[in-house]
Specification:
Number of strands: 6
Largest sheet: 3 strands, antiparallel
Helix content: 10-25%
CATH topology: NE0471 N-terminal domain-like
Number of helices: 3
Radius of gyration: 14 Å
Strand content: 25-35%
Shape: globular
Strand order of the largest sheet: 1-2-3
Length: about 110
């Protein structure tokens, strides 16, 4: 992380909808919970995305229930990231501020 990276000044989680972030440069991001889960930066999710990109017939892991995904909680990791615990039990991804900003198609800063 560099001194030029945007940092959040306000976070608002609506557990069954989205994480809203207001950044110190004035930009506001709204990241749907389903997107955050699908784009988890955890090693297993990155590997799955790579497999899907190289083989469109990749078998997806089954979910244990069919309810819509929810963000059950978020916690700060140091002063640079969040950990999100999802309703399907996934909680191993560390979402850095830079990574969260990159998930917003309107939020790229360069």
């Amino acid at each position: 992380m560099t001194a030029m990276d945007p940092r959040p000044v306000h976070l608002d989680l609506v557990r069954d909808e989205a994480l809203s972030i207001t950044w110190d440069d004035g930009h506001a991001s709204r990241l749907p919970v389903a997107l955050l889960r699908r784009m988890s930066p955890s090693a297993d999710q990155r590997q799955l995305r790579e497999e899907m990109a190289s083989n469109p017939l990749t078998v997806l892991p089954s979910r244990t229930f069919d309810a819509p995904i929810r963000a059950e909680s978020i916690e700060l990791v140091g002063n640079y990231a969040l950990r999100i615990r999802f309703s399907d039990g996934h909680d191993t991804g560390i979402y850095s501020w830079r990574y969260l900003r990159s998930l917003d198609p309107e939020g790229s800063n360069g």
